[in-house]
């Protein structure tokens, strides 16, 4: 039997034995000295990746500070933990429109006014080179802004389905934008990468600008999430 015959026989009779674990996370969190001095650490055992290491100063709800590496609060679908998703996996567009995990510093807070005067905000300055990259590739950092209007008067947490069973309608409208110049056009848990049609980049080669608007709604077990995107690469 020649080589092609052997390959065919293996394909018909031989089946590979594969054991694959998509996610296996070790998570550690707590506080030090004061309850509002918080820390969090997360490690992906399956891929041997350090995902999160962050320190939070959260003494006031209106003004908080975070330093380290984490999944940036940019778009709702990506921020929602894999254990809190409504579906088994995230949507296909998540691959193209997420900035995933970055290292940097962020200011954020919850402005809890009466009724519709209820807002969340996030502003971050990041290295813009992805998970595990400890430095920026050039003098251009990543800048991100997100504003969230909780117009029904209640902050909607980053959960996919309505497991909490909201007795009252909870909904939000959010706008966010990010700009970055780096060797990459997309990001994932693996770090920086490229969208289809873009070759391997060098320092400062690609300028990426994104804008997005999203809505979310929860009421008595019903849940809705929507994102609209604009994306430019140069």
What distinguishing features does this structure have?
234 residues; mainly beta; 10-stranded antiparallel β-sheet
In words, what does this structure look like?
With 234 residues, the chain is mainly beta. It has a domain at 74-233. It is built from three helices and twelve strands. It has helices spanning 3-13, 76-79, 94-97; strands at residues 25-32, 34-44, 49-57, 64-71, 101-112, 118-126, 142-149, 170-182, 186-188, 191-193, 206-219, 222-233. It is globular. The model has no long low-confidence stretch (mean pLDDT 90).
- Distance between the terminal alpha carbons, to the nearest Å? 53 Å
The share of residues in helices is under 10%
Report mean pLDDT, rounded to a whole number: 90
Query: How many beta-strand elements?
Result: 12
- The radius of gyration is 21 Å
Q: How many helices in DSSP terms? A: 3
Low-confidence stretches: none
How much strand?
over 45%
Order of helices and strands: HEEEEHHEEEEEEEE
């Amino acid at each position: 039997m020649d080589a092609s015959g052997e390959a065919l026989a293996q394909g018909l009779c031989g089946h590979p034995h594969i054991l694959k674990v998509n996610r296996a996370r070790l998570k550690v969190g707590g506080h030090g000295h004061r309850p509002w001095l918080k820390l969090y650490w997360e490690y992906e055992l399956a891929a041997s990746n350090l995902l999160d290491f962050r320190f939070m100063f959260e003494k006031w709800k209106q003004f908080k500070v975070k330093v380290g590496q984490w999944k940036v609060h940019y778009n709702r679908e990506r921020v929602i933990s894999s254990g809190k998703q409504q579906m088994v996996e995230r949507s296909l567009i998540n691959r193209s429109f997420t900035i995933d995990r970055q290292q940097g510093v962020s200011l954020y807070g919850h402005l809890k006014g009466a009724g519709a005067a209820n807002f969340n905000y996030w502003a971050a300055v990041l290295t813009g080179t992805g998970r595990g990259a400890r430095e920026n590739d050039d003098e251009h950092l990543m800048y991100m802004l997100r504003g969230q209007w909780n117009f029904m008067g209640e902050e909607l947490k980053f959960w996919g389905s309505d497991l909490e069973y909201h007795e009252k309608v909870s909904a939000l409208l959010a706008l966010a934008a990010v700009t970055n110049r780096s060797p990459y056009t997309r990001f994932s848990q693996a770090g920086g990468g490229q969208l289809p049609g873009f070759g391997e980049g060098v320092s400062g080669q690609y300028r990426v600008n994104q804008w997005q608007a999203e809505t979310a709604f929860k009421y008595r077990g019903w849940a809705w999430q929507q994102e609209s995107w604009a994306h430019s690469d140069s």
